[in-house]
Design a protein that fits this description.
single chain, 338 residues, alpha/beta, FAD/NAD(P)-binding domain, seven-stranded mixed sheet, 8 helices, binds flavin-adenine dinucleotide, FAD/NAD-bd_sf, Ferredoxin-NADP_redctase_2, NADP binding, oxidoreductase, ferredoxin-NADP+ reductase activity
Length: 338
């Protein structure tokens, strides 16, 4: 499964900086493919603060995270980037004078150059540290999101966590599941007050079983088919609840993951680059935005934008060997109409 594509520049990360890199590459007639672990573009702006205003984007006295991403996407659109979302770049290998990226969805992206705009790493769910977890994840017994609510009809479901996702899914799944248990470390939930009241009422009516204060302790089953979840109090008293599914809702975190294993120069989980080209120690691999570091680096969106321009100009001779690049302003060149 997965797609096989060839492009000029493969961009890892669809955060604000990766999106602007599409524009900068496009202005130099370089096509791009953008890959992100999240299902949506926007990186931290989308995942962590869509409604928070940002005050230091030039020419925008205030713009919230989601609005900035919408504008960056529109600015990139005329260059028709291919977005491969919801998949993580796992592998990087060199092929003659090109590079090939492999994703968790089985895609193969061949490119003349790579721009790593991976922020603090790929977003993914926080996983509970339980023995045997990978087997139950692979079989779908443990899931971190509910893609199809119907999958849980008539099933015994354990939901772990104390935020909005845990509370909202408990309220929703109790309607169709055979049994729902909510596991939380403390009596207080960090969710919309109205939903918390509804959950308490449902628990009082016996529609949801509350396991408080408990945390996840283990999984029971044959390694793929789950039969129960073991819970423990902070004092170590355990009990097992019968279950077909476990849904841990512990939020998102970022991890550098595979990028750390590609032989790139690293400094405290950041990729070291030459400041004027953003090139890494590997020829044709550049890093920009939060993930890139050099003396004087500022982790700001505006700095990432300028790095996108520098990387695109540095890459141009690889994509168009022997062709002189005459510097032009965007106004004299014109942008194709989307
Ligand atoms: P990110 O936004 O982190 O995006 C990187 C993307 O790469 C992610 O979507 C990730 O899933 C993806 N990725 C990583 N590894 C892989 C992989 N292997 N495969 C596939 N995808 C991968 N900055 C400002 O300038 N002004 C502000 O006011 C401001 N306020 C902030 C407020 C908060 C609460 C936070 C958390 C940050 C704030 N920042 C602010 C910082 C700003 O958000 C970051 O500098 C910016 O998001 C960096 O952009 P980026 O594109 O480099 O990386």
């Amino acid at each position: 499964s997965g797609v096989t594509v060839e492009t000029d520049v493969a961009i890892i990360g669809a955060g604000p900086v990766g999106l602007f890199a599409v524009f900068e590459c496009g202005m130099l007639r370089m096509r791009s493919v953008v890959i992100d672990a999240l299902d949506a573009v926007g990186g931290q702006c989308t995942a962590l603060y869509p409604e928070k205003p940002i005050f230091d984007i030039p020419a925008h006295p205030a713009i919230d995270g989601a609005a900035l991403i919408e504008k960056l996407e529109a600015q990139a659109a005329p260059f028709n980037p291919l977005y491969l979302l919801g998949r993580r770049v796992e592998r990087l290998r060199s092929l003659d004078d090109e590079w090939e990226l492999g994703t968790s969805a089985g895609d193969r992206v061949r490119a003349k150059a790579v721009i790593i705009a991976a922020g603090a790493g790929a977003f993914g769910p926080n996983r509970p540290p339980l023995a045997g977890l990978p087997g139950y994840e692979a079989s779908g017994a443990v899931r971190y999101l509910v893609a199809r609510r119907e999958d849980f009809r008539g099933k015994r479901v354990v939901i772990a966590g104390g935020g909005d996702s845990a509370v909202d899914w408990a309220l929703s799944l109790k309607e169709i599941a055979a049994h729902v248990v909510v596991v939380h470390r403390r009596p207080k939930f960090r969710a919309a007050p109205e939903s918390c009241v509804r959950l308490e009422e449902a628990a009082a009516r016996g529609e949801v079983e509350m396991a408080i204060p408990y945390q996840l302790h283990g999984l029971e089953g044959d390694g793929t088919r789950m039969t129960g979840v073991v819970l423990a109090t902070l004092k170590g008293e355990t009990k097992t609840v019968p279950a077909d599914h476990l849904l841990p809702f512990y939020g998102l975190s970022m991890e550098l993951g595979p990028i750390a294993e590609w032989g790139l120069g690293l400094e405290r989980s950041h990729v070291t680059v030459a400041p004027s080209t953003c090139m890494t120690n590997l020829d044709g691999i550049h890093a920009i935005g939060d993930i890139a570091t050099y003396p004087g680096k500022l982790k700001l969106i505006l700095q990432g934008f300028s790095e996108a321009a520098m990387a695109a100009h540095a890459i141009h001779p690889r994509v168009f060997p022997g062709e002189a690049l005459h510097f032009e302003y965007s106004t004299s060149k014109g942008v194709p109409v989307a």
